[in-house]
Amino acid sequence: MIDIQNVTGGYQQKAIIKNLTLTIETGKFYALIGPNGSGKTTLIKLITGVLPIQEGSITLFETSIKSYQALERAKIIAVLSQEVQVEFDFLVEEIVMLGRYPHQTGFFKHSSKRDHLVVEEIMKQTDVYQFRKQPFKQLSGGEKQRVLLAKALAQEPKILFLDEPTNHLDMKHTVTMLQQLKEYQQRRQLTIVAILHDLNTAALFADQIGLLNEGELVDTGDVSILQNEELLTRIYEVEVKTNHHPVLPKPQLSVIPNQRELQVSDIEYDLKETDHYIHLEFNGPLRTISNCVLGEGLQWKRNFCNFHVDKNYNCSSPKKDILNWLREAGISEYDTAGMMTAVNLKDRSIIEEKYGDISILVVLTAGVGNAVDITAKLPIDLGFSIGTVNIMVFIDAHLTDGALVNAIQSVTEAKTKAMVDLEIKDQDTGTIASGTSTDSTLVAATQNGEPTTYAGSGTVIGKAIGRTVYKALIEALQKYKKRSEQQL
């Protein structure tokens, strides 16, 4: 355990760290974050004894740092600093072997069989074994960083200090290095204290985080402190927004520059319709929420497609099929939301309405052959099915993520109201349907104007969504009914 009590210290008479108190538990990955000049590197130098403490105390495993002799300290502490400086032309394996020096005995410090086994294992773990016979100076910056990490781990320390450990590393080796360190930490109860400037990396790998500013510990705790947007914005002097990693329960941050992207000007779009698809292309990206086949969840999109497929369509790879169709049509696959439907696209409904300052566009295809009452008996789960009621709603407004969820709810309420008013029934139960079993819904906002936090049925936007969706769905279902009757 590292226990820091009321520590003040720095360089000569200048105090960089001021009256700092912090406890780092054994076996934890503790990340030090903060702007440049906040005292992160100075704190590590104070803990490791490189700089003298002016006031306060630091203990490692309940023993004062001042009580450790240099060799004793080297047995429990290893440091990987930012500087990559090796004066002599050592081979890589010779550099890593230097990490075994504190454990070697005798006047001449001979390397033992165990030293060689440890060095070989660590070089393999850090992916530098293939460089073992190469001169250190001939390596790239990232390769050198991994070699120096291997040297630090070869010490078999109890505490590992890392000053920007991913410096010079590409994406792959950054992730690989930190994953290996996490495994090493958990396997050996290694305490890691790392200075990290990338807050997203800190969120993914650290157990605890300490935020420093002007030599003071502003906040410390688990990674949830990275959700304090107001604090981070103030400390880093740049607007920060926090969200969550799409796979892991970890916060991730986005920096919001003063120069914003050019906003979409009103609801301006190009519409292309063929027998195979309806395609709307906007003059800029819109913020979207959807359960589309392609582009689901919260996204930014500028192309919106609804593809027609046969009723007997093989649903084994719908996303792959949409990607192929987009490529054939010359439509970008990266900024497109795509749906598919078995409904005849000629029966689509496109309605654009204006409610005061709010413009809304609804593009909708609908059929009710598989209408269901959601409260009726549980169906057999058949996996993905072709869309029947596909609704796209475009709004010239700035909707927060919560408002986008509200908007989806408003669309759903309007859809259900239309089903009830038209007395659409679940064929299996004979009860009024609430929708169909294969509905797809998308809401997209231009993000113009001031942010709106609500878009439910009690708001102007929610009402506008509901009225327009209801009108469009009634129109589309009337077309669907007429075509169905003609085919009988």
Give a structural overview.
It is a single chain. Strands 13, 14, 15, 16, 17, 18, 20 and 23 form an 8-stranded mixed beta sheet that branches. A 6-stranded mixed beta sheet has the order 6-7-8-3-9-10, sandwiched between helices. It has a 4-stranded antiparallel beta sheet with strand order 2-1-4-5, with helices on one face. It has 488 residues and is of the alpha/beta class. It is elongated. A hairpin with a 2-residue loop joins strand 17 and strand 18. The chain has 11 helices and 24 strands.
Class by SSE composition: alpha/beta
**Which CATH class of the largest domain applies here?**
Alpha Beta
* Fraction of residues in H or I helices: 25-40%
Residue ranges: pLDDT <50 for 5 or more in a row? none
How many E strands? 24
Rg estimate, integer Å: 31 Å
How much strand? Answer: 25-35%
The DSSP helix count reads 11
The outline comes out as: elongated
Tally of separate domains? 2
Mean pLDDT: 90
